Amino acid sequence: MKNIVILISGSGSNMAAIVRTAQRDNWRKAFGAQVAAVISNRPDAAGLALAREHLIATEVVDHKRFATRDAFDAELATVIDRRQPTLVVLAGFMRILTPAFVARYEGRLVNIHPSLLPAFAGLDTHQRAIDAGCKVAGATVHRVTPALDHGPILAQAVVPVLAGDTAQTLAERVLTQEHLIYPRAIAALLQGL
Ligand code: GRF
């Protein structure tokens, strides 16, 4: 079985979209793949309950319990490796990962970022797109490399920026597209594995 491990920090709506698609499209039969676990760095992440509702195993590796980023990433890797993952999927995982961690999962690690990369890497993407006067915005699924929010692009979706948009209304429009492209990009990866 190809195991998918999903890392979250918050609401987990992308994670839930992936889990729902995996169930709806029967990824077990189609690709011999399953979402094996959802791991959060925050014990209070709403996505944990959502994962449990879908009968997915959950784990918490609370970054606040670790003195250094290296120590946190080492424990995170231990917990991930117990699931023998084929893919490690970052879905709203709000921690910067160490180069050692990224190297460990090279070729197996993907992320979704709420902008049309390479524009607007980093935080606050929607407000920055509005402030720059962009007419379109969007989201990018990409392979993770040591450079933050860079790495080969696997999928993108474009939405219009509308007059009167706030960061929140734009984020909602982009998020709807994230829920479509992320499961699709993962299915395409699984097909090639
Ligand atoms: C998404 O916009 C994602 O692109 C960004 O953080 C948000 C996470 O949302 N990295 P959710 O936790 O998947 O609901």
Number of strands: 7
Q: Which residue ranges are poorly predicted, with pLDDT under 50 across at least 5 consecutive positions? A: none
Estimate what percentage of residues fall within beta strands: 15-25%
Helix-strand pattern: EHHEHEHEHEHEEH
Spell out the CATH superfamily: Formyl transferase, N-terminal domain
Q: List cofactors, ions and other ligands.
A: 5-O-phosphono-beta-D-ribofuranosylamine
The SS-based structural class is alpha/beta
The CATH topology:
Rossmann fold
How many structural domains in the coordinates?
1
If helices are DSSP runs of H or I spanning 4 or more residues, what is the number of helices? 7
The profile of the biggest β sheet is: 7 strands, mixed
Topology summary:
Blueprint: E1 2-8, H1 13-24, H2 27-31, E2 33-40, H3 46-53, E3 58-60, H4 69-81, E4 85-90, H5 99-104, E5 109-113, H6 125-131, E6 136-143, E7 153-160, H7 167-191
Parallel strand pairs: 1-2, 1-4, 2-3, 4-5
Antiparallel strand pairs: 5-6, 6-7
Helix pairs in contact: 1-7, 6-7
Describe the structure.
The protein has 193 residues and is of the alpha/beta class. It has a seven-stranded mixed β-sheet, with helices on both faces. The chain has helices at residues 13-24, 27-31, 46-53, 69-81, 99-104, 125-131, 167-191; strands at 2-8, 33-40, 58-60, 85-90, 109-113, 136-143, 153-160. It has one domain (2-191): 3-Layer(aba) Sandwich (Rossmann fold). The radius of gyration is 16 Å and the shape is globular. α6 packs across α7 (167-191). Bound molecules: 5-O-phosphono-beta-D-ribofuranosylamine. 5-O-phosphono-beta-D-ribofuranosylamine (GRF) binds at residues 8, 10-14, 47, 91-92, 112-114, 139, 175, 178.
